[in-house]
Amino acid sequence: MKIISLCLFQWRGNKITDPKLLATGFESSSFGFFKRKSVKEWCEFVSFTLAKRTNESQRQSVKEKDYICHVHNRFDNLSAVAICDDEYPRRVAFSLLNKVMDDFMDIYRNKIGDLQEYPFEQIVQLLNKFQDPNQADKLSKIQRTLDETTIVVQDAIEKVLKRGENLEILIDRSEFLSGQSKQFYRVAKKHNQCCTIC
């Protein structure tokens, strides 16, 4: 899972004015040295085209060969585009796009207006932070923790089921269970012998 590029545009919401590139971030270490410039130009071109052709307040994902291009044009004249490999989670990609635009607006909320240069080095930091979606996204981190917990619980249940014979002995010796409960367990076990737990 990898994010290749992240671009931020100022966008006017009409077909007359082209989106203005405000900031970019690239992760090109997986490409050969001589290919990096071409990859960067390709990413900027695709991002520009998607930002221009996506309507205001719209999000979309477009597949291009082995990559998914996620774009979000917001009502506040900002547009962000992330180009990721096709394994990168869509929800996390859109969280990244929102974070980029929110952070930019926190800095330039009262200054944005004219098409001019805005230094925004944070885009590279966000690109690097979101390379691992499990670390960057709180919901993904929680889901991974839940998955690990589920594995532990399943392992424990399997161990208990393997000790079924010992469980019967414990039930027979138990002082906490009444004779009626012990009899109920034996009858239930007898009736369930035809069923197996997988």
UniProtKB/TrEMBL annotation:
Species, as recorded: Anaeramoeba flamelloides
- Residue ranges of domain V-SNARE coiled-coil homology in the record: 138-198
What is this protein's name? Synaptobrevin
Specify where it is mainly localized: membrane
Pfam families hit by this protein: Longin (PF13774), Synaptobrevin (PF00957)
| Stated family | Belongs to the synaptobrevin family.
List residues of the Longin domain.
9-108
The answer to whether keyword Membrane applies is yes
Which Gene3D superfamilies has this protein been placed in?
Answer: 1.20.5.110, Longin domain
- CDD domains per record: Longin
Where is this chain's protein located in or outside the cell? Endomembrane system
Bilayer topology: Lipid-anchor
